[in-house]
Predict the 3D structure of the following.
Amino acid sequence: MSNQEERQSWSSRLAYVMTVAGATVGFGATWRFPYLVGENGGGAYVFLFCVAMIVIGIPMILVENVIGRRMKVNAIDAFSGHANGKKIARGWKILGYTGLLGAFGILAYYMVLGGWVLEYIGSLLTGKLDFSQPLNVEYTASFLKENIHDNLWGIIAYTLLFVIVNYFILVKGIVDGIERSVKYLMPILFVFLLVMVIRNITLPGAMEGISFYLMPDFSKITPQLFVFVLGQVFFALSLGFGVLITLSSYLDKNENLVKTATITGIMNTIIAVLAGFMIFPSLFSFGVPPDSGPTLVFQSLPIVFSNMWGGTIFAIIFFGLLVVAALTTSLTIYEVIITALQEKTKMGRKKAIAVTLGVIFILGNIPSILGDNLWKETTIIGKSIFDAFDYISGNILFILTALGSAIFVGFVLKDEAKEELGAGRTFTNLWFNYVRFVIPVIILVIFFNSL
């Protein structure tokens, strides 16, 4: 049998949408989005994020869905075949490889963040992180340094544990592994999220945080900020590193791509916005600054939990939510590389999974951890190893892959892309011309702004 004949399909639209939602939630919505909101004017950032989801998010989801479902193969060979009566040049496959490199770069530090979260959960369960007395910023900063940055073997162990959990789910395959896990994990994530939102919006003084979060200060809305937000949408939706191409390659040909893309964009936006509701009301309630950057959830929120009734329980729920969100994303990013390895080398699935997770752990996770510890003086393009993986993947590889994908759809696939979309003529033509002439310009602006 060919790879295409052996391929499974999602059991239903709901299963696919839930999996894509899980892939696009992750740390992008629960860690990155809140701290960027805090750093960039609260409601102004939230407003621009919602606009950016419409301007570039949903159109680009459709671009990757069309590319992925068209050939129903891995993210490299998706850029092959024939279009409009001509064989597609092999050079286009480089977009698949840059996407895979980006996926490697994200997983190199992403799994380490998962290890950080597990360390916090372990510290809460054992009492090492004690909320019996209100904490201050000096204490939480010291805890972060001692238990994360200076805790070499502990973080290696927790990161490895997170990798092993991914392994045992991935070996069961797309349907029995990823799909079935997401069916349980996403409802758990929603329940945890709602519990935290309800707890935080009922705190004294919570309205000040809600006002900061929802009331945009239009004086802070600038072209520069909008371009910055557009870039965050790429990260939030996992655009440019083959996730949506790979997941949609398992999608039935009769599925309505426009409907699934719209649902995906809306779900991602709702979850990201809800994540803000579980953070900002509590920050303002206890007088903690919202602009502490990437350490917001690791350094500032423990102060909040230590001042809150039942703080330890709610902290465990919160960090548990982060683990679930990280897991639903890491599974699908790993799958991009695993599927390519299986189909390009004819390697068995278990072996492909072991090779993928093992190589990334040794060449990505370990260096990222060491970059905070023994190798903290080592820099790449002026950044720590951890930050370099993030910057090169998110600001260069993903953007270039997304740009190439838009050009591929608009100037190579052309009529075949329209046919694959399968929507009404008016919408299809509007989307196609927007992708062909407008999206590349937007992506180039994002790219040069990020350099």
Summary: Confidence is low (pLDDT under 50) at residues 1-5. The longest strand covers residues 82-83.
